[in-house]
Design goal:
Elements (H helix, E strand, L loop, with lengths): L4 H9 L9 H8 L3 E5 L4 E3 L7 E7 L1 E7 L5 E8 L3 E2 L2 H4 L7 E4 L3 E7 H10 L1 H33 L3
Antiparallel strand pairs: 1-8, 2-7, 3-6, 3-8, 4-5, 4-7
Helix pairs in contact: 1-2, 4-5
Amino acid sequence: MKLNPDFILALLRNLDIFEDMSDPDLVTFGNFFKDRIFVQNEVIFHEGEPGNSMMVIASGEVRVSQTHGPNSEEALMILKKGDIFGEMALLEDLPRSATVIAHSNAITLEISRIDFLNYIEKEPRNGIKILLKLGKTLSSRLRETNAKLKAFVTFSQWL
């Protein structure tokens, strides 16, 4: 299934990390994305697998989980249309830090690290814009995780 280019543009246009890009640049960048379809409860990727792409949710929901054995899953968050995941893989060549599962039937747009790096090499101005926004996104998520960890440590002192 090939998604409509206007749909892809509208989806990417609504993402903070691409808000500083012009529509023509975003259309060009959007051509690097491939659509993928997942059925409910299908694993999109496993924690520990090589990370080599980022995804944008075009429809449906996915859950980000930690696994603690073959039949044990702890859902960390539910992501929905317009959310991104796997973005750390664009910046580092390390294994995935969580398992992501289709929470409902879902369609994603995926960009590989190779395509991303090729794009920012050819379009450094846009690359800098994207990387700065990506850095802000990661920083925000780290602050949120730190706040949760602080609350957990505070709570555990009462046990």
